[in-house]
Structures are given as C-alpha cells and as structure tokens.
Amino acid sequence: MKLLGRKKDDRGGSGDPKAPGASGSTESADESAAAAAARAGTAPKGRPTPKRSEASRKRGPVAPAPMTSAEARKRRKELGGPKLSREERKAQRLERRTVMAERREKMMAGEDAYLLPRDKGPVRRYVRDVVDSRRNLLGLFMPAALGLIFVMLAVPSVAVQQALSAAMPALILIMVIDGFFLGRKVNKMVDEKFRGNTESGWKLGFYAASRASQLRRMRAPRPQVERGARVV
Questions:
Q1: Residue 183 domain-assigned?
Q2: CA distance 103 to 121
Q3: Same domain flag for 91 and 151
Q4: Residue 93: inside a domain, yes or no?
Q5: Within-domain flag for 46
Q6: Other CB atoms closer than 10 Å to residue 164's CB: what's the count?
Q7: What is the extent of the structural domain holding 88?
Q8: C-alpha 130: how far from chain center
Q9: For 145, phi and psi rounded to 5 degrees?
C-alpha cells in the first residue's frame, strides 16, 4: 500500500541509510573528524600515530642542490666559516707541521703512546733491543742486492752476468737462513723473559727479521741500544 505524497524512489528521506544524502553526511562527518584530529596533533585514520619527538620536530626548508661547480665551491666556503688570511693560513700550517714533527720525534724515541700498533708493547720493545744490539747479515741484504744490480747493468759481459745471476739466489738463501736463526733466538729470549707471552713465535720472528733487514739509521723507532750491548 502506497502512502499518499510519498514516492517509491524518494532520495531526500533520512530513513534509508544507503541514500546519497546520508552518505554525504557521513563523509562530511569523517572529514570534520580528521580535521579535528589533525588540529589536535593526532594522525588521521589509516595512518600510525607519530611519536611525540617526530610530531614536535620542525623541519626547515631544504636548500636546492647546486647547479654548477662554482656554486658548490661557494656553498662549501660559506659552510666552512670565515675566510682566513694568508698569515693565518701560514700560521695554521706551521702549527700543524710542528705538531706532526713532535709526534714523529716521540715515535722515533720509542714512546709507546705514539708508536704504531705493530711496535707497541714491552715484548716488541725487547725484540727491537735484541735486534739492534747485534750485527745481522740481513742488514747487508739491501746494499748487496743494489750493488749486484748495479754491476749487472754496468758490466755487459756475459760471464759477469752469469756469475751475478748465480750469486743472487745464494745471497737470498743466506739471508733466509740468518733470518731463521735470528727468529729462533728472539723467540727463545722472549720466552725466558716474558713467561706469560701469548704472541705467536712466527710473528715475532718475522718482526725481528724485517727490522734486521733495514739499515740501522733507517729503522723506526730509532735504536735505543748500541751494537754489542748486552740485552737481558
């Protein structure tokens, strides 16, 4: 039975929840709720609530990337602070060189705080003293090798070339044998002096041989004992 004055497809009524009018009112209510939530500092629907630190953080405008290298240099200069004068730059360089020279001098003197990691510790200092207190055949390797190479280049004789070619492997073999015995001696002395030493004998032997193969004046840190001194 039809009621008077009411049509079947009436769209203005509020009784049908699926009517467009009701949907529009629902959407407007959601929008107003989202706006109120945004004003209150909460996240809108469908998004996680931001942390308080993120909500309170204010990001300033980000400068655009430089378009040219000149603009990039200018920006680096601005970020680097005020420009120094020539005298100030010179004083800065002199101060830096002075500091580096002081650090190198302390390193060459054997101060543990300024040494390289490979040279630090009482065990390594003891090994250096043992090597520096004796005459090593390994110390003659570099001068002898350079001398042989110079003679090979200066004298084009075939007989000389063959003799020197045979002398080079013999020289290398002698140096290897001397380094082996030096490593054994160093490890024996270290074991007697440092009972709790846990460092590998191979590493200590190689450290001693590599130092012994250098000329005495070129060793770093600088030798702290004289040749022939008794190291205990």
A1: yes
A2: 18
A3: no
A4: yes
A5: no
A6: 17
A7: 71-106
A8: 33
A9: -65, -45
